[in-house]
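[SOLVED] Need 3D model of a four-part complex

Original post:
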Amino acid sequence: MLSPTGHPAAHDDGCHHGRSTGGCVDCKVRLISVCAALTIDELDGLEAISQVVELAPRQALFAQGEEAGAVYNITEGTLRLFRLLPDGRRHVMGFALIGDFLGLALAERFTVTAEALSPVRVCRFERAAFKALVAERPSLLERLHERAGCELRLAQDQMTLLSRRTAEEKVAIFLVGLRERYARLGQASVTLELPMGRQDIADHLGLTIETVSRIITRLDRERMILVVPGGVRLIDPARLERLAAS
Amino acid sequence: MLSPTGHPAAHDDGCHHGRSTGGCVDCKVRLISVCAALTIDELDGLEAISQVVELAPRQALFAQGEEAGAVYNITEGTLRLFRLLPDGRRHVMGFALIGDFLGLALAERFTVTAEALSPVRVCRFERAAFKALVAERPSLLERLHERAGCELRLAQDQMTLLSRRTAEEKVAIFLVGLRERYARLGQASVTLELPMGRQDIADHLGLTIETVSRIITRLDRERMILVVPGGVRLIDPARLERLAAS
DNA sequence: CGTGGGTTTGAGTACTGTCAAAGTCGGTGG
DNA sequence: CCACCGACTTTGACAGTACTCAAACCCACG
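Solution:
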């Protein structure tokens, strides 16, 4: 899905006012995203400045340090958000799922790189236009701020996770947390898709890939999870949660 | 400075409109806090709903899980913000300095406990009244959101810090970071006050008190810092920064 | 001068990292 | 259809950093 320029492919969806399908109103993430703050009328304004962008796996949506020319709402797929440290180490700040909003802070520059892990589709909003829209719609800003509060909380939870927990606890918390996020999206299931690789998980939890692999193997041997292609099946969620809570 | 009830002492400062000193206009943190977003007139509205609260060291301003009845702006002193984990471990999320705003997210409940490390003075704003004020002043909400963006960034930096860095790097980053925060407040100095104890630093960095103590001793022996009562003197900031950057 | 909280130092242990090699899986091309 | 290749993952042996437990130390305070 690479565009000829090598940049993410952007499609102006064209039918802004004569739309029947594909518009914001029909958007499947509308009610779980910041857009839920808007009235049907306001969605028109949003749609007028939106573009659909598609990314193939491993393609970057934006990069750390780059000027933030736009904000994004994910409508399909999963991305990894990471920073590169001066010494070459990589820190995966988190994973962005369907419904997540990227660029909440409306800051000048991106502090992370966002890279697709699976085929991704996002709604792109040009930053200046989006800010203008926000300026005249306090309810949207409120909603953004509310979301930012959630983000902050997530970040703090992650800090707590990284601080003084054993490798086993970290992995358990990661799995349970991911399941909860999927559940909130209405995608509850015993089988947990893991679109990210072991190295991504390791860089997210502050562990090495070997340790992550060993722990996952151990959880499998102890019958808490079952490793399946592309993810894990949670065999004994209760025990996993007990591990995570300790 | 304990009130007879055992609760933080609150003084309605009384002279809302006939004020000459002590009002928001003269507030020494006005320009470094969210209040900088307000016009002189708007400060009147803010002042009308503000109370000064004073805390003695070790006294709590609010507690984790408690209903968030108010938001606060720190005008003096330092607090520690921490969470207690189910197993009794404590995670110090961070330290709030003069000018910091507590309750940015305007959430229903506090996610951390805030406890004074030194004599503290804060401006207390009843939450409902503050939200009402925010609702009619978009510039204030913008400012709050901007601050939230900073907070989020700080939290992410802390995540990066906690993830896969050696104990020595963690302590160096902590010291350098604290110095930068003081510097931004116009309190640059070679002597770094450390109102928090070793245990607080340990719980902040995800280390044990023994490790923190050993590292600080080592940095002292290697002539990067000099341990002094109540803090440290930075002897060789450049070398410390190199350690922190690695 | 004794007490208590906080800090420092010491000895031993264990968890997780490092280095190295083998294994798995999917895709490609002969 | 099968062999090969490469990326990723798993497993193993060993080492090192930070943790645990324990004791000494320091200083402010009564």
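Edit: The first strand of chain A starts at residue 9 and ends at 11.
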